[in-house]
Amino acid sequence: MSESVFDSHIHFGRFGSVYYTAAFVVRTLQHLGVGKWAIMSTSTFDPDFDYRRVEEEFRTILDIALDETYPIMIVRPEMLKSHPDLDRYFTIPYRAIKIHGYTDEWEPYGKPTRRVADIARERGLTLMFHTGGRERSDAGAYPSDSR
């Protein structure tokens, strides 16, 4: 039986009209006494997405709280198209990869989805799916082994 993960996470980056810096988010978590956190960047969804900004923010987080941080990479279809092995994005020690089926067109049984599942498996990372919001991104739309 494979390990299951309950996804309770936090974001840094833009939410509405406000940009929450990595340092602000981490300092807030520390102030609240949170011991460990799973975190991902909403900057991945920016129209002018530049991965260097995501890297910089993650490096800030890891410099402040390496042992407390469980970094999660959100994968967009265009990331996979430009870097089919996603190698360019593994400059951060990600612990999981997340596919966001609500914001992007990820077909549950599609070749790109299977490719991301293969990459996660090859790297020993947890594969996560955003669920809900649309029928195609409901939890039951995805196969249990992502094949």
Structural overview:
The structure is a single chain. This protein has 147 residues and is of the alpha/beta class. It has one domain: Aldolase class I (TIM Barrel, Alpha-Beta Barrel). The protein is built from four helices and six strands. It has helices at 22-32, 51-65, 77-82, 111-123, and strands at residues 10-15, 18-20, 37-41, 69-75, 96-100, 126-130. It has a six-stranded mixed beta sheet with strand order 2-1-3-4-5-6. The longest helix has 15 residues, at 51-65.
SS-based class: alpha/beta
CATH architectural type: Alpha-Beta Barrel
Main CATH class: Alpha Beta
Number of strands: 6
pLDDT under 50 segments (min length 5)? Answer: none
| Biggest sheet overview | 6 strands, mixed
CATH-derived topology:
TIM Barrel
What distance lies between the first and last C-alpha atoms, to the nearest angstrom? 16 Å
Q: Bin the strand percentage.
A: 15-25%
What's the alpha carbon Rg, rounded to whole Å? 15 Å
* H/E element order: EEHEHEHEHE
Percent helix, as a range, is: 25-40%
CATH homologous superfamily assignment: Aldolase class I
Enumerate the strands of the largest sheet in spatial order, edge to edge or round the barrel. Answer: 2-1-3-4-5-6
Residue-averaged pLDDT, rounded? Answer: 86
Count the DSSP helices.
4
Number of domains: 1
Subunit organisation of the chains:
single chain
